[in-house]
Amino acid sequence: MIDKGTYKDRVIEFLYDQLRQGELTPGDKVLELALAKRLQISRAPIREALTQMVGDGLFVCRPQVGTFVASLSASEIIDAYVTRGLLEGFSVAAALQDFTSADYQLLQAHCAAMEALADNQEQLALIELGRDFHTFLFHRCGNRQLIEYTQRLSSKLHLLFYKHWASLYTPAELRSRHEKLLAIMQTKDAMQVELVFRAHYLETGQRVAELYAKKQQEKES
Amino acid sequence: MIDKGTYKDRVIEFLYDQLRQGELTPGDKVLELALAKRLQISRAPIREALTQMVGDGLFVCRPQVGTFVASLSASEIIDAYVTRGLLEGFSVAAALQDFTSADYQLLQAHCAAMEALADNQEQLALIELGRDFHTFLFHRCGNRQLIEYTQRLSSKLHLLFYKHWASLYTPAELRSRHEKLLAIMQTKDAMQVELVFRAHYLETGQRVAELYAKKQQEKES
DNA sequence: AAAGTGTCGAATGTCGACATTTGGGGGCGC
DNA sequence: GCGCCCCCAAATGTCGACATTCGACACTTT
Questions:
Q1: Cβ of B25: how many Cβ atoms within 10 Å?
Q2: Angle of helix B144-165 relative to helix B7-20, nearest 10 degrees?
Q3: What global pTM score does this model have?
Q4: Residues with Cβ < 8 Å from B187, sequence gap 6 or more?
Q5: Are A180 and A195 spatial neighbours (Cβ–Cβ below 8 Å)?
Q6: What are B68's strand-pairing partners?
Q7: What pLDDT, in 10s, does the model give residues A158-173?
Q8: Which residues of chain B does A86 touch, with a Cβ-Cβ cutoff of 8 Å?
Q9: Residues forming a β-bridge with A125
Q10: Is A81 in contact with A197 (CB distance < 8 Å)?
């Protein structure tokens, strides 16, 4: 059998999938023994995977009680998105001189493709495209520390909230919002780039938090 | 026996101390079995502590080989400090309206105390004071996500490089640099605050990286 | 002598089991 | 009927041992 790395890594992949597929939702408890039986392995690699993902903020751990999928309050959601905007805005601003016109053409095409996919209700592909768009942007800067934090936060938000993304904006909004990012980048005004990216994520965070609060209310009723 | 939390937490504390006391320096390998025997516990809690600290960036893990104290290159050091400046600058700018004149008096006193301690060669106390100064600043903002990242990065830099801090600046420089931060805060100009904090940490990062490179050269010779 | 190869030791990754602690459910008292 | 307390099952934290893998050393080969 080809070795796809250690068991721990496979457990992490499995949990990622569980989150993506909605089989694990915020607040759920992760039963180590059940996971161990299901994956046919012992609890040791599972515990290591969980402690790593706790570090990523995807789970929270209450000692002697258990590990739960992170359940963010409305303000925490906004905080996370604001921080994401801070990090990505700075990343992009720092690499502003490195984006070529070819890059912009590529990114512009992404924006158009987003709108098309949104029109066709291809939500999964749409979300992947949005992810690619932003990943492409913040990976251009050479600051590894910054990229690492941005990547982790991006993952966290993706896994916890991507389900809601499709309903946040209309296809046209989706396109224009991202084209606005490209437009400001092309002015090469670093400070403005930062501010626009921050606003971009702040708005998304507010909408996600709002949607999330509504869903919580429905659950209770 | 009093229960200071789980074994894992105690291992983490122990490793923190090892780093602080210089008994673990960048590049060192952590032998799990040796640690287990020394702490009279099994390897399980030690492995969990290590995976958590790997998440904090204090250690790096090579599968099937071992866990090592993180050894940053010069550019990575600068990257980390730049990111720190970004995070703390934004934190402070976001909480700018919440700082009272009493706060400023307190912080001003800290600056004076720093200079005094530096004059008296009280390096440990000096470092703690500097830490308190910045912790006080970035904890004022209400953004938990931001505080978490800032705190973790602060810890990482503290444990890996605090040894060099005492030789970075003269006592007078130390004071004036921090007073400059306070001065710009009092203007309530959020954008300027961010920029000044970024410059503050960029310069420190450059000096640390320089010092660090020198030390590496000496080691090799 | 340098490069490649094979072997061995040691450290990691993983396992199954035990002890300890928590949270809930049932029973008792008010 | 409501609230408190005790007890127990279940899940976590921890342990010691085994299998597997990597790195170093010595040996062979050119």
A1: 12
A2: 40
A3: 0.93
A4: B193
A5: no
A6: B29, B60
A7: 999 988 888 899 888 9
A8: 86-87, 90, 146
A9: none
A10: no
